Amino acid sequence: MATKNQTKPDVSGRNLRPFYASHSPAQLKDALRRMHLIRRFEEMAEESYVRGLTHGTMHLSIGQEASAVGICLDLSDRDYITSTHRGHGHCIGKGAEVKFMFAEFFGKEEGYCRGRGGSMHIADPATGNLGANGIVGGGLPLATGAALAIKQRKSKDVAVCFFGDGANNEGAFHESLNIAAVWKLPVIFVCENNQYGMSVSTVRSTAVKDVATRAIAYDMPGVAVDGNSVADVAEAMAAATERARRGEGPSLIECKTYRTKGHSRSDRNRYRSKDEIEDWKSRDPIPVFESELLSHGIVTQAEIDGLRAAVEREIQDGFEFARGGTDPKPESLMQGVTTTGDIAEGIGA
Amino acid sequence: MATKNQTKPDVSGRNLRPFYASHSPAQLKDALRRMHLIRRFEEMAEESYVRGLTHGTMHLSIGQEASAVGICLDLSDRDYITSTHRGHGHCIGKGAEVKFMFAEFFGKEEGYCRGRGGSMHIADPATGNLGANGIVGGGLPLATGAALAIKQRKSKDVAVCFFGDGANNEGAFHESLNIAAVWKLPVIFVCENNQYGMSVSTVRSTAVKDVATRAIAYDMPGVAVDGNSVADVAEAMAAATERARRGEGPSLIECKTYRTKGHSRSDRNRYRSKDEIEDWKSRDPIPVFESELLSHGIVTQAEIDGLRAAVEREIQDGFEFARGGTDPKPESLMQGVTTTGDIAEGIGA
Amino acid sequence: MSELRELSFSAAIHEALAQAMEADERVFLMGEDIGVYGGAFQVTGDLIHRFGEDRVRDTPISELGGAGVAVGAAVAGSRPVYEFQFSDFSMLAMEQIVNQAAKMRFMLGGKVSVPVVFRMPCGSGTGAAAQHSQSLEAWFGHVPGLKVLEPSTPEDAKGMILAAIDDPDPVLVFEHKLLYKIKGHVPADMYRTPIGKAVVRRKGKHATVVAAAIMVHKALEAAEVLAGEGIDIEVIDLRSIRPIDTATIIESVKKTSRLACIYEGVKTLGIGAEISALIAESEAFDYLDAPILRLGGAESPIPYSPILEKAAVPQVEGIVASLRDLVQGRI
Amino acid sequence: MSELRELSFSAAIHEALAQAMEADERVFLMGEDIGVYGGAFQVTGDLIHRFGEDRVRDTPISELGGAGVAVGAAVAGSRPVYEFQFSDFSMLAMEQIVNQAAKMRFMLGGKVSVPVVFRMPCGSGTGAAAQHSQSLEAWFGHVPGLKVLEPSTPEDAKGMILAAIDDPDPVLVFEHKLLYKIKGHVPADMYRTPIGKAVVRRKGKHATVVAAAIMVHKALEAAEVLAGEGIDIEVIDLRSIRPIDTATIIESVKKTSRLACIYEGVKTLGIGAEISALIAESEAFDYLDAPILRLGGAESPIPYSPILEKAAVPQVEGIVASLRDLVQGRI
Ligand SMILES: Cc1ncc(C[n+]2csc(CCOP(=O)(O)OP(=O)(O)O)c2C)c(N)n1
Ligand SMILES: Cc1ncc(C[n+]2csc(CCOP(=O)(O)OP(=O)(O)O)c2C)c(N)n1
Ligand SMILES: [Mg+2]
Ligand SMILES: [Mg+2]
User: Fold this and answer.
1) Of D144, D266, D276, which has the smallest distance from its Cβ to C277's Cβ?
2) pLDDT digits (tens, 9 = 90+) for A87-115
3) Whole-angstrom Cα distance, residue D143 to residue D99?
């Protein structure tokens, strides 16, 4: 797997792996900060459900933060991502502000989608995030199309498509990867394999052990990495991004990970064992990352504590901001249905 | 590739390959007869267009007879096939009578579909032929479902799905092969790779060289064979059928072949060269098969001539039968829309 | 005894599926998470434990393939009941439902039948937003070869599922998600609700309301309110979207001379358009004393915000006001 | 000079595509066999030679992916025109057209627009049978967020394609296959036909006919025949299925007091149902002197047999007879 091969010794003189060698302490701390921000955002989101502040459903990615952050870390606002129903991590990873995400949860005008989308559709075009998606696999053709637009305007940006193991059995997966490969589009397909599509394990749904194996069917590179290791994910992503920016086409990255929470609010966890959940919890990506950073002397415990405190403030402030948001007026229902309607109402595209 | 390993010497003492060793001279002659019948049927069908006897469009499989016959040869009427828009060969290979096929072409009540379906929908449920299909890839889930029904009734039959190289880029291909593999269904996916999906070559449409490679994505056996050799096709089919009847699940067979005629009536052949067409014509499956049969002393030239004469009579009689068929009455339009309607009209299911 | 039986709408469907599977071993279920999970709306529930994995099949997330496999199995002699987790996802399977299942019998000259059932959880009100809240019955009502049902009561839910499974043609049953929890009388035996028959849920003389699924309940609520004002509304539960029971509606309109169609699907080209057109071209036209009122879903996707979501579909207050205007000649 | 220009319907679309691509390099074409093959109906023709493979993209046979790639490219700043080889195949892409393209702007709070165009060759009459002959415009007319056009003349075909490409929202243009060869006047400049405006093709006083695409021509033929009998029919070309120009229809019906809707799509829940309902709920209701007539496609798939195929859609003789009955009060 090709990667930036800068290496430099850490405090104890050991050579650092490419991920640590190629990122500044500031970048690495920010990566950790984002992981905490995702974690706390989702814990708070869950709490607001319990407190009846939001309706509908929601899908938490607790335990999957490493793939969201590892993939998005080196992307710019001009690179696109398409996300999934389990998209809070991708959204924050790509640079969204939690206050506007909370506002969306609470169905407020201040929300990223003016309260029209909710958890399953949070998007932030300003940071290149084309949105979560309520349709499993729905983002696959969209990301491929965004990559085509990138290629057409001859820029060096990339499009990233997050999707789940369950989505890899949708026809959209096959058609999108084939088109991307035949047209050599700058798109990176990131499968977050958390072992289950809702209640169905990959063993029962998918004819191959590794989704990455399916890259062979499109003659594109496919790698399976430890999705709970930011370093593993980021290094695989670096290789895929370089390939895409060189104009050599798409790649498939499979991040093996796990959601420690249920699929959604209504999940009774009948399809998996406590032991399995505990086992994965013991490989929680956040402590794993922290201990690596500490052992390399890139960050101190004091810095971690400070960073967590800052995250906590951001969460609380964001939550309060959202609680105080504005409810949409029923008369505004038709806004955004078409541009014609909007222009008629004088709000424009 | 596993096959029946009976071998026996031919006239010149050479050991015969499994296909010849495992089939009686009568069976082999019938295979040749069917290939001639397909060829002549399509030549006659084309002629009837020129003479304005049929309307709509039609897709000829001239040059592809070996795969149709090689696949269907050892199937019983209880084994299912789903066919394609280019399905005349499959239909005859599975045992249909040309007179009812001509009648369907001419839109007559005597036709297999009472003139409702035409060339693109000819079916013959009585021989297990669930029908041609106007939708590329449309038969993939259907054959998979038929295989599920077979498994549910615990019989040893198989379902065969014919599809083209173009269809292998449809989402239905991916979803069907995955489901068939996960559920170990007795279905054999037969890709007739004639190098083009209409005007688009596999090089421009398909990210891999061999469609058979895609079997890896479903952990099923995949083989690419010379689709112009009945023996190659039939031996691959024997292995796949045995596997399916043993309950071990699906297989993918890719028959490399070529249509020497245009895609359909409107084709101007702008996308391929005369040389390419001539080159493939020089490997016409019918002469190839005949010379093998002759060299093995399985059939004499006189027998071939006799068999061709019989085919000619069958074609002429079938054509005349169809010309004299009955036109549907406009009042009968609603028949077959639903069983309720039919029962109301007293024709029943 | 069975007179006293009360079941929820979802329990009624569950009972229908269980009885059909008991009675005919060709009947089986397919869908996403219908096994140990019990279905997204807990309709299949424990059936996997009663009938096993072969007859309660969790499919991969592959709607086109899954629905198509059901169609193929039906043609080949099985009796599949395919559950779309949300009917919105049927868009991925339109090809197999409409190009294949609906047309196969006709295209093949009547030589095959396609006894497949599609269960279609539909409707808004759960905060699931634009891609999980649609009411698409009008699309399928436009397709010859399909039968389309929409129960409003637990009794009909059971009877329609059993009728659909018996039927040799492809049948879609739209189940409004907000109805799953309502309770009602459900006979214990294996009865069928006839396909293509509407039913008058409330007799009245001043206006006829035609509604389906949850809108039947809203219409009945509105009728109660109006009864207090001396306005007497007849409420027809359409029950079958294809075929439509025109006769029952014509008869009612001839009596009341006023017609309102109330439906949750998008107003334009929704089921109310067809009901209105059927009456406007019928002998009942001459009996009409007022324009034909349509209250349908807004011309927008379903929004997430509960305030906007409510505004996007007909609500009781609005229905009451509109019916009052209709009867008092203000429309 | 340009007054005298005559082009075929397909040449008019070809010209619109070429002019749009000349004017804006973001505009490009996608579809199956639209390159060297020139398109199944030879509409894109030589464009690949003029604009190259990057802007005239032959896609693999992957409608869901292809249409979805077009949607994604549109959101990201390109201007795709996706050709479905037959609109029947759009069933494979309903998810991307309806769940994604149509709803994205709304779901995202108006923060994006989706300027994608889908070209939809439709209709029967070519002997292509049930899976290649459908008229599905009513489905898309039921979907908020989409715009749906249906030209009947070469002039409108060009103007609608140009208007669709300019429009920031997803637009579907239904092109009836039997119209591709008809000829008519087509201005040379880059004009746009306004979206959402119907047009009166023939003035008359005894009855209003609303039709679209090929049915406009059949209606005009029928009107000619009836003119000989002193029956004077007004023919409105609907042109836009979503949004619908209700005002133009209401105005005409107020004048003629009689309405007939003629369409090729399946009658039940087809576009005529909506036209009828729009009038029956409007102020024009009080002006109606007769039931609203609907002549739509048969409640069957399109058969292969030419005899049956003819019987499955409205033909001139039948239209003449029905309109005569309508005007002479026999309906
Ligand atoms: C097309 C479609 N089918 C089914 C669903 C219902 N559904 C929502 S999430 C989900 C599981 C998806 O599994 P996976 O892709 O692995 O993502 P994960 O939930 O594990 O993150 C299902 C079945 C849907 N939203 N869209
Ligand atoms: C879903 C769908 N897309 C497109 C078409 C139009 N079409 C008919 S045949 C064909 C080419 C199919 O290629 P292939 O699968 O290789 O079969 P072949 O024609 O080569 O036998 C196309 C594009 C169709 N009938 N159905
Ligand atoms: Mg998963
Ligand atoms: Mg081919």
Assistant:
1) D276
2) 999 999 999 999 999 999 999 999 999 99
3) 10
Sign of torsion over alpha carbons A274, A279, A280, A285: positive
Name the closest ligand to CA C39.
Answer: 1
Fill in the DSSP letter of residue A9.
Answer: B
Cα(A86) to ligand 1 centroid in Å equals 9
Q: Looking at beta carbons, which residues of chain B come within 8 Å of D301?
A: 337
Gap between the Cα atoms of A215 and B119, Å rounded: 37
CB proximity list for D233: less than 8 A, separation 6 or greater: D202, D204, D206, D207, D208, D209, D219, D222, D223, D226, D227, D323, D327
User: According to the model, what pLDDT value does residue A265 have?
Assistant: 82
Block residue for tokens 């029928």: D222
The mean pLDDT of chain D is: 97
Name the residue of chain D whose CA is nearest to B201's CA. Answer: D60
- Burial tier of B97 (Cβ tally within 10 Å: 0-12, 13-18, 19+): middle
Ligand 2: residues within 6 Å at CB? B 59, 85-86, 134-136, 164-167, 194, 196-198, 263; D 32, 61, 63, 85, 89, 92
Tell me the pairing of strands B222-226 and D79-83.
unpaired
Rounded mean pLDDT, C156-182: 98
Q: Average pLDDT of C159-183?
A: 98
C95–B138 C-beta distance less than 8 A:
yes
Whole-prediction pTM value? 0.98
Note the pLDDT tens digit of each residue in D11-31. Answer: 999 999 999 999 999 999 999
Confidence at residue B14, expressed as pLDDT on a 0 to 100 scale: 80
Is the distance from CB of C298 to CB of C311 less than 8 angstroms? yes
- Cα angle B202, B189, A223 (rounded to 5 degrees) comes to 65
- Active site residue ranges of C: 63, 132
* Parallel/antiparallel/unpaired status of strands B159-164 and B222-226: unpaired
- Inter-residue contact A340 to D164 (CB < 8 Å): no
- State how far the Cα of B171 lies from the Cα of B183, in Å rounded to an integer: 18
Is there a contact between D74 and D47 (Cβ–Cβ < 8 Å)? no
Q: Does B111 touch chain C (CB under 8 A)?
A: yes
Inter-chain residue contact A134 with C40, CB threshold 8 Å: no
How far is the alpha carbon of D279 from chain B, nearest alpha carbon, in Å? 30
Residue ranges around ligand 1 (CB below 6 Å):
A 59, 85-86, 134-136, 164-167, 194, 196-198, 263; C 32, 61, 63, 85, 89, 92
Number of B/D CB contacts below 8 angstroms equals: 128
Taking the CB of residue B24, how many other CB atoms lie within 10 A of it?
9
Cβ pair D17, D29 in contact under 8 A: yes
Strand partners, D185: D6
Whether B142 contacts chain C with CB within 8 A: yes
In ligand 2, the atom with minimum distance to the C-alpha of B135 is 26
pLDDT (0 to 100) of residue A3: 42
User: Distance between CA D218 and CA D205 in Å, rounded?
Assistant: 19
**Predicted confidence (pLDDT) per residue in A57-70, tens digit:** 899 999 999 999 99
Atom of ligand 1 nearest to the CA of C132: 25
**Residue range A154-181: average pLDDT?**
98
Alpha carbon distance D313, A286 (integer Å): 65
pLDDT surpassing 50 at residue B349: no
Give the C-alpha separation, B326 to B111, whole Å.
Answer: 9
Nearest CA in chain A to D64: A172
- The two three-digit tokens of residue A318, written as one number: 């964001």
User: From the CA of B289, how many Å to the nearest CA of chain C?
Assistant: 34
Name the pLDDT band for B348 (thresholds 50, 70, 90). low
- C126-141 per-residue burial string, b: 16 or more CB within 10 A, e: under 16: bbbbbbbbbbbbbbbb
Q: Phi, psi (5° rounding) for residue A171?
A: -55, -30
Determine the residue type at C32: E
Alpha helices by DSSP H, listed for chain A, are 18-22, 25-50, 65-72, 88-93, 98-105, 139-152, 171-182, 202-205, 230-245, 274-281, 285-295, 301-323, 339-344
